[in-house]
């Protein structure tokens, strides 16, 4: 998955770094628990443009088990796995695409280990790339991305918000929503103001959003 096909919200976050003066960190961020690493992945290789496509109803149960085995076989510990509905903008097709994926919490893993695990997943499931995110302290020089999590968002609402904001869909690419209605939006630190704008356009109270700093990587 590329940036325009994640989210992977993706995508993988706190606001208010130097140079991003219009964005302020949420107080939720300080109390939030974050695993050592996160992997956003799918076994789908098709481009789906119909939100009612039956392939989007899969629960990826076998994929869940297989990725957990990959994580364990490579020296890490698999934590929670969350099913996601992704809504992304395809610059090539000039239209919205959809994807069912999973976010995997990965514990007892470092940067290189997480990179290796994502590479194995990408190769085994013929993915263009797999997104990883590591939570880091606010001032870490490695923190190049943010991950925003916010409740009360549906995939349909995310689709509408992206359609109404051409710059957000072009720059951010899209995001994902859990089946329970939680937005997961991963974005570069430089796009924090834009990510906040999209999040608030979804009707989210910014002070209640969970915001994390971290390092994102798209692993091929």
UniProtKB/TrEMBL annotation:
Entry keyword annotation includes Signal: yes
Secretion signal span: 1-25
Key word Signal present: yes
Keywords attached to this entry: Signal
Protein name: Secreted protein
Organism encoding this protein: Streptomyces racemochromogenes
